[in-house]
Specification:
By secondary structure, the chain is of the alpha/beta class. The chain is built from twelve helices and ten strands. Helix 9 runs parallel beside helix 11, helix 9 runs antiparallel to helix 12 and helix 11 runs antiparallel to helix 12. The protein binds ribulose-5-phosphate.
Length: 269
């Protein structure tokens, strides 16, 4: 692995804990103005200081994120269909040159294992990895997004392993209660979990705690942070679980303590 790739990965993963809290705000690329992201800049700006990196599309990055931010950027490079169409019908929509121009620390692409366009999306991952290797750019493969997915360990294990075999440097998937440790064991690259639909804060913290205990390298969480009643408090509570080994009770207590307080004003507006 070259210096550039190592440096980018070192910016994404906290050097003390070895883990990462990524903030996912890319939902609009197929869902439009999602609840909590109707005004992306308002949502994102106060959360940037607490995020190890921001997972975002180029459109929101250019228009709604200050170029003065020090938070590393993970750029979504796949897309195509909307929520009204066939979700697996994705292609590569943002070039590697663009990712480099935007000073991305990594790029992310979805694969749709078991869905209509499984083969094309997996081959797209291969193409992105081929180019990314030339420039030292880490690639995150996003698995198991689909309308009808049975998100059990067997399916998640299959999808994550395929992503790693094709060359992804990191994989994002969902947490499953049963045998998540086996999903992690079967995947030779770090796994981060997506949060999924909004659930009560304590349950989301429990999910993050369970995932970390079973070997996840962090979270790439969106709705359970930005749709929280107190997003800045929630991202800090998630950080406490991921980076500081807080128990769920401790992290929930932290959330409750912080939720009444105003978030620190971000240095970048
Ligand atoms: C959708 C994505 C999202 O970034 C991912 O689902 C994470 O967000 P959430 O925690 O809201 O599920 O990649 O394709």
């Amino acid at each position: 692995m070259g210096w550039g790739m190592k440096n980018r990965l070192a910016r994404i993963f906290n050097q003390n804990s070895g883990k990462t809290v990524m903030l996912a705000v890319d939902h609009g690329y197929f869902q439009g103005p999602t609840t909590g992201l109707k005004q992306p800049r308002e949502t994102i700006t106060p959360l940037l200081p607490y995020s190890d990196c921001l997972f975002v599309t180029r459109g929101v990055l250019r228009n709604c994120v200050s170029p003065a931010t020090n938070t590393p950027i993970f750029l979504r490079v796949s897309g195509g269909p909307s929520v009204l169409g066939e979700l697996s019908n994705e292609d590569i929509i943002t070039s590697m040159k663009e990712a480099l121009r935007l000073n991305a620390a990594g790029v992310g692409i979805s694969i749709f294992v078991g869905e209509k366009n499984e083969d094309r999306t997996i081959s797209n991952l291969g193409k992105v990895v081929n180019e990314a290797e030339e420039y030292g750019m880490p690639v995150l493969a996003i698995t198991a997004v689909g309308k009808e997915m049975a998100r059990d360990a067997r399916y998640l294990g299959l999808a994550c392993r395929i992503a790693a075999e094709i060359g992804a440097h990191m994989v994002k998937t969902y947490y499953c209660e049963e045998d998540f440790d086996k999903v992690v064991e079967g995947c030779p690259v770090p796994i981060v979990i997506a949060g999924g639909k909004k659930i009560p804060e304590r349950e989301a913290l429990q999910m993050a705690y369970n995932a970390i205990s079973k070997g996840a390298a962090g979270v790439d969480m969106g709705r359970n942070i930005f749709q929280s009643e107190a997003p800045a408090a929630m991202v800090q509570a998630v950080r406490a679980v991921v980076h500081e080994n807080y128990t769920v009770n401790e992290a929930f207590e932290l959330f409750n303590q912080l939720k009444g307080k105003k978030a620190v004003s971000s240095v970048v507006e």
